[in-house]
Write a structure and sequence with these properties.
Structural class: alpha/beta
Shape: globular
Order of helices and strands: EHHEHHEHEEHEH
Helix content: 25-40%
Low-confidence stretches: none
Radius of gyration: 16 Å
Number of helices: 7
Distance between the termini: 34 Å
Number of strands: 6
Length: 195
């Protein structure tokens, strides 16, 4: 008999012949759509929805994060709206979440002042259904050490981290108190990712 305790599920995605930008757009928009879809199902209470509400994006470099930040702002939201209005319109018309504006987001990186980082960490404790809850947060290795926010349950890792220790440390930031989902987007052009 399995003990009832939180666990993480790891899913790797590689898209040979497609760019990492296109993969990012599809993965982020699908995961955010799925978490919003939970609001329309009666069997999930707010605590379960909150576990998957804030998507944590983990990046190996500031350069990757900077490029992804503008892509999310420009393209992920549009793809998300496409999923709601076209592809899954029969599901999305049941949404109870008012998604009229752009998402509430922030980042945890070394390019932010320490006071801003402290405030961001405090804000990460705010969960669904509070409208101030982050929809997504983008982070570098700053996230991988010493941050313990139990409500976080969903992470997307952009390419395989350089060391196994960083991979383990980073992904263990989600699913600490509740079940977690970690999606790793592998770059099919990098030998480390393919291995």
């Amino acid at each position: 008999k399995r003990q009832e305790k939180p666990a993480r599920r790891y899913i790797g995605i590689a898209a040979p012949g497609s760019s990492m930008v296109e993969l990012l757009v599809r993965v982020y928009s699908s995961l955010i759509f799925a978490s919003r879809y939970l609001t329309s199902l009666d069997e999930f209470d707010d605590r379960v929805i909150d576990n998957f509400w804030t998507l944590v994006g983990y990046f190996n470099t500031l350069r990757d994060l900077g490029g992804a930040s503008s892509t999310i702002f420009d393209r992920v939201y549009e793809r998300y709206k496409y999923l709601i209005n076209t592809k899954f319109n029969d599901l999305a018309n049941k949404f109870t979440y008012d998604d009229a504006g752009l998402w509430n987001n922030n980042e945890l990186t070394s390019r932010k002042p320490s006071a801003d980082i402290k405030q961001t960490l405090e804000n990460l404790e705010i969960g669904y259904p509070d409208k101030r809850a982050y929809d997504y947060i983008l982070a570098t290795n700053m996230l991988s050490v010493g941050i313990d926010i139990g409500r976080l349950g969903m992470m997307v890792v952009h390419s395989q981290p350089k060391t196994n220790a960083e991979y383990i440390q980073a992904t263990s930031r989600v699913g600490r108190e509740n079940p977690g989902l970690v999606v790793i987007m592998y770059n099919a052009m990098r030998s480390r990712d393919k291995s």
